[in-house]
Amino acid sequence: MNNPLNLDLRARAELLAYLVSSHLLAKQLTGDWLSPDHVVESTTLWLRTNGAGADVMQRVMLSSRALEVARQLETAPLPAFSPLTITTLFCENLRLDFRSEAARAIYQNCLTWLVGTR
User: Fold this and answer.
1) Listed residue (50, 105, 48) closest to 74, CA to CA
2) What is this structure's pTM?
3) Contact yes or no for 52/62 (Cβ under 8 A)
4) d(CA 22, CA 24)
5) Given this model, what pLDDT does residue 116 score?
6) What is the CB neighbour count within 10 angstroms for residue 40?
């Protein structure tokens, strides 16, 4: 299978949302953000799971911005975020669970952020 090396806007938003959610969950469970190694591992996992391809620049841009977005969301007064809802972000197969209001809010925030950075 030949994957293109550039993700479209929605795929970039989903990857960013996945990384932001991973940061928020790690912070909730351990008190610390993901390490750079874990961010790289999470990025690779998402790309493989979704059959996607991203060039190095896209991966670096999204993974480096994920912590910034996660920190903003952690302090945002959004009703969708609480310690209980953060733990419902993922399904059993480690995909974002878009049935969760928090996952949808993170995705929308990431999409808005990406559109604003163009």
Assistant:
1) 105
2) 0.88
3) no
4) 5
5) 85
6) 14
10-residue averages of pLDDT along the chain (118 residues): 71 95 91 95 91 86 93 76 73 86 91 85
Number of CB atoms found within 10 A of residue 83's CB:
8
Rounded to the nearest angstrom, the gap between the alpha carbon of residue 90 and the centroid of all alpha carbons in its chain is 11
* Residue 60 one-letter amino acid: V
In the chain, what are the domain boundaries?
A: 9-116
How far is 28 from 19, CA to CA, in rounded Å? 14
Unique residue bearing structure tokens 């961010």: 39
> Contact, 111 vs 9, CB < 8 A?
yes
pLDDT attached to residue 109: 92
Is-contact 59 80, C-beta < 8 A? no
User: What is the distance between the alpha carbons of residues 29 and 40, in angstroms, rounded to a whole number?
Assistant: 19
